[in-house]
Automatic annotation (TrEMBL), chain A:
This is Cse1 family CRISPR-associated protein. InterPro entries: CRISPR-assoc_prot_Cse1. It comes from Gallaecimonas xiamenensis 3-C-1. It comes from the Bacteria.
TrEMBL record, chain B:
NCBIfam families: casB_cse2. This is CRISPR-associated Cse2 family protein. InterPro entries: CRISPR-assoc_prot_Cse2, Cse2_sf. CDD domains: Cse2_I-E. It comes from the Bacteria.
Length: 528, 169
């Protein structure tokens, strides 16, 4: 199967019909493709990145004007087919060892043979099966995959690869990175969904000059192994486009002829994959890689390497909004390159009435194990550069105050619960989760209001700050009472609980952060 | 302003009935003469009390709570509306007017008789200067929790409500 020429990508057309398309068909305008339809959520994210990578590699626009023209009117499908077609030799899924096979080690003859379920990131490793911890997916459930699902699984693994034991390298963005893609909020074609995430050439990611370059597609040459005699791979050593085609794992799929019903999509095919072979010490990505589709934490002192943001326990909420959509000065989080580029150049070229979202997804990894897959969409506002700067500053105040409140809440609930709170460990992050949940609606309302305020005023939005003050205070009251008193109150030391409650509000009112948003005059009635 | 749950009774009617006791010494004496709240049930004074209140206060299930309210209010000299009953028990001084231990005991009374006795002690401690509506609502809630178990939502429990007022005062 050739991933450029054959129709292997599960998709949905405007009339709702499911189909399989070859990549060039994303440019069809008659009953266009509107969405992908992968059999698993992580594959869906991977297919998006496969197509975005292909567009970036084969047809990156020269500048933002060309980007904008093509956003509104896709290229002719024939033209796209021939642009992609040049890369076809690098996209064969199966071939003899020694000839290139997509995302697979060129020369891997011998290695550990593994069942195909081992390609899936939530599949339990040997240890997990033993510990009977495989609540995620029951082992033995996935026995054979159709070539299409095998290609999706392979790309998903190579792009997200967690650490897999000695010498089984993590992906170019670290294990289980967060990916953030821009998406129109309303109805749109798949072309638009993809093209929003393609960068123009001014970003250093111009289309490949040499079509079949091992600097981009590392599987066209012997793997840069990373065992004792080998080496790490730094950004300066290969083409920037390799970021879209990272291959940390040495894998070779084995194709089997014969009728197959795919364990994942249920499709019936003439051949299948039930095993692969693999070896450790594949490409070891090191140095300051900055993948365009992933947000990073940047060390302001530049002493640490940029750290890709990962999935987090408890998922994402609005306190991550700044770091994912703009930048968060509190912790150095910075939105992905495509998102920053959008704010800087593309936003002005789009119809401001078309609302956008940021689709954020990734695994919540616990070392080698996936705890879960999660996705969130966050609102993206179309702001000019100077407006974005103001909104960033003001929203930072809101987020800082929310963080401060959540921290105070946690601290005082512990004081209410325990005689000696400092000695008590335990995970009480669920308290934060409930607090952020309770204030989410008001945060996004305030954010929209900040954006409006920034259109004609550069002074801090005092009234909005005060509204946020009251939101936080109300949420603290409710959350404290519900959590601190969630035992049998008669059996609790209510004196201690109430002392903790009083201390919570005393500290809230005197907090430096909170003072920024506190109404100037104290309200007459205290509801503490 | 705090909303008191008075089980449908009109605040004005309650206050009016209470202040009218000043001119009806006989009635007040009838209500005060009892040892146990149920002793009041057959009195003329209690009938007059019920006449001012909604039908539901006369239901069998509610009668005991109604009796507790009528007998307790008979000991209140002056309707002191500035703060809640639990806050009044804390008082304004550093040292609480009613001690922490006594306060907890009041809440944890095991029978309506015990609650009544302790309530009277509390009212005496306050020299009869008590918030009538707050006291009424608290008696009603105490009896409801006594018969039906505490509120599901801990935030609304009497113990919590009182602790909030007493310990934070
Ligand atoms: Zn399949």
């Amino acid at each position: 199967m050739n991933l450029i020429e054959d129709p292997w990508i599960p998709a949905i057309r405007a009339d709702g019909r499911q189909c399989r398309i070859a990549p060039w068909q994303i440019a069809e305008t008659d009953n266009p493709v509107v969405e992908l339809a992968a059999p698993r959520a992580d594959f869906q994210g991977a297919l998006y990145q496969f197509l975005i990578g292909l567009l970036q590699t084969a047809t990156a626009p020269e500048d933002s004007e060309q980007w904008s023209d093509l956003y509104h009117e896709p290229p002719l499908a024939d033209k796209l087919a021939s642009a992609f077609g040049a890369f076809a030799p690098a996209f064969e899924l199966f071939s003899e060892v020694g000839k290139p096979a997509f995302l697979q080690d060129l020369t891997l003859q011998e290695g550990e043979a593994k069942g195909i379920a081992g390609l899936l990131i939530d599949a339990p490793g040997g240890k997990t099966v033993k510990d009977n911890l495989d609540f995620f997916i029951k082992s033995g459930q996935v026995e054979q995959l159709c070539p299409s699902c095998a290609a999706q699984a392979l790309f998903t693994l190579q792009t997200n690869a967690p650490s897999g034991g000695v010498g089984h390298r993590v992906g170019l963005r670290g294990g289980g990175p967060l990916t953030t893609l821009l998406k129109p909020a309303g109805a749109s074609t798949l072309w638009q969904k993809l093209w929003l995430n393609v960068l123009d050439s001014s970003n250093g990611l111009q289309s490949a000059n040499t079509v079949l370059s091992a600097d981009i597609f590392s599987w066209l040459a012997p793997t840069r192994v990373s065992d004792k005699t080998g080496q790490a791979t730094f950004p300066e050593e290969v083409a920037p486009l390799q970021m879209y085609w990272g291959m940390p794992r040495r894998i070779r799929l084995e194709k089997q002829p014969g009728f197959c019903q795919c364990s994942l999509c249920g499709g019936e095919t003439e051949s299948s994959v039930s095993h692969f072979i693999t070896r450790n010490y594949g490409t070891n990505y090191d140095g300051a890689w900055l993948h365009p589709l992933t947000p990073y934490r940047i060390d302001p002192k530049k002493e640490q390497l940029p750290l890709s943001l990962k999935g987090q326990k408890g998922g994402l909420n609005y306190r991550h909004w700044l770091g994912l959509v703009l930048r968060d000065d509190e912790n150095g989080d910075q939105a992905a390159k495509v998102v920053r580029d959008f704010q800087a150049t593309k936003s002005a070229l789009l119809d401001a009435a078309q609302p956008l979202q940021l689709w954020c997804f990734g695994y919540d990894m616990d070392n080698m194990k996936a705890r879960c897959w999660y996705e969130h969409t966050l609102p993206v506002m179309q702001l000019g550069a100077s407006q974005a700067e103001l909104v960033q500053q003001w929203a930072q105040v809101l987020v800082n105050c929310a963080r401060e409140s959540a921290q105070l809440l946690r601290q005082h609930i512990k004081q209410a619960w325990y005689r000696r709170p400092k000695d008590v460990g335990g995970d009480i992050t669920f308290i934060d989760a409930a607090f952020y949940q309770a204030t989410t609606g008001d945060f996004y309302k305030a954010l929209a209001a900040l954006a409006r305020h920034s259109q004609n005023d550069t002074s801090p939005p005092q009234a909005l700050y005060e509204g946020w003050f009251h939101t936080l205070k109300r949420a603290l009251e409710t959350q404290f009472d519900q959590s601190a008193l969630n035992a049998t109150p008669e059996a609790m030391d209510l004196k201690r609980v109430m002392a903790a409650r009083a201390a919570l509000f005393k500290n809230f009112h005197s907090s430096k952060q909170i003072k920024q948003i506190k109404p100037a005059k104290r309200p007459l009635k205290e509801t503490a | 302003m705090t909303e008191h749950n008075l089980h449908g009774a009109s605040p004005a009617a309650l206050r009016h009935w209470h202040s009218a006791l000043d001119g009806q010494r006989g009635m007040r004496a009838q209500l005060r003469r009892i040892d146990r709240p149920e002793d009041v049930l057959l009195s003329e004074a209690f009938a007059a009390f019920l006449a001012r209140l909604p039908e539901s206060w006369r239901h069998e299930r509610h009668l005991m709570a109604s009796a507790l309210v009528a007998s307790a209010l008979a000991w209140v000299q002056h309707d002191e509306q500035t703060s809640s009953f639990a806050k009044q028990l804390k008082g304004k001084e550093e040292r609480p007017l009613m001690s922490d231990m006594r306060f907890k005991q009041l809440l944890k009374s095991r029978t309506p008789e015990e609650f009544y006795r302790r309530l009277l002690r509390a009212i005496r401690l306050l020299k009869g200067q008590v918030n009538v509506l707050s006291l009424t609502a608290d008696i009603l809630q105490w009896y409801q929790e006594f018969t039906q178990g505490p509120e599901r939502n801990p935030v609304n429990r009497l113990a919590v409500k009182w602790a909030r007022d007493y310990y934070a005062a």
